[in-house]
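Researcher: Next entry: Cdr1 protein (Symbiodinium natans).
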Amino acid sequence: MAQKGCCRSAGRKMSQSDSVICTGPDLEDSLIFLAGTSTCSTLAEEPCGGVAKRIFDTSDLSWTPDFDSFGRHAIPVIDEGRFTLDHVLRPFARGSKAQIEILLDHAAGDMKILAKRFPCDYLQDDSASFHHSNPQSAEDPWTEIFLGLVLGKQRASREQDVVPVVPSFGVYRDLQDDVLLLMEWSPGGDLFEISSSLGAPGPEREETATQLLCALLEAVTRLHCKGIAHGNICAENAILRVVGAEVEVVLIDFAMAVHDTDLSATMGPRGSLMYRAPETVGDNAIYDARAADLFACGVVGYVLATGTYPWQSTAGDCKAFAYVQKNGPKKFFDKRTITMGTSKVPVSQVLSARLQSILAPLLDMNPAERRVLWH
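Model: Predicted structure:
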């Protein structure tokens, strides 16, 4: 399914003549973003005669993954002699059940690749046995492995209309029966890291933030067109991928993803409290997972533009979010302040009216009203 994006710079080759420079803490080189041509729009701004497309009417049902038959038995054993551990990027730790490693692929000239290692005793044999052992878990590592493999291999093979994800080189078992998901090593940093390096809130920061948000929205919308919702959109789960002169935002970590089912009738908590859409909160909540993804994108956009979170949680006693629920995003932008030098300035005076008109529909409390305008 061909699809137009709200951000012309996503995946396009860029030149120094029309760019601003953004450097993140983990980048060796400057990252180039197209400046002055962000075309993400809302109903208030339709420069190309765009039409607001609801998130509920674009589903590519031809993509039918066979998840039920996927398990440990389907995973081949890795060629131990082909790979050498270079270093551990993120070790096993409380709250993190997988280890992130950088391997050297000797068959590819010692190219560095990323391996996400899932230990045997945690993973179990398949999704059903995992949930039997972890009945309260909101995550499913088998979903992460399966979607990372399927979407990532589509990307690696350069198929048309692919979801912007990290290219995958396959999934394997080692001699300890741990499972390793092998992916392209993309050291560009995640959006949270990049956000910390964008400078003070203002027009220059906003230009880059808008580009990143538009690229994220394009990635998420393409995912939805495959009949998949991410379930855990946050600044840490979107990374910058740089290949030559091309720069794009790609999605990672599909452990909370919803797929192969009716996305409009999703149940169960997903995502972190700062990004969680209000309709998803509650033991018996039934919600559209695509609308919840868009809400989380709005939070990411706010973080990128301001360098701060809009609230601490969308559940429980959070005064900032309670104000949004009562008064809406636009009045929240008038009320909420951020520090500029020695002064506290309302967000509505820091962000342009245009960016506010992009963020407000994403952060709408009514999930049926959340939208992105494509042109």
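Model: Note for the record: The chain is about 25% helix and 20% strand.
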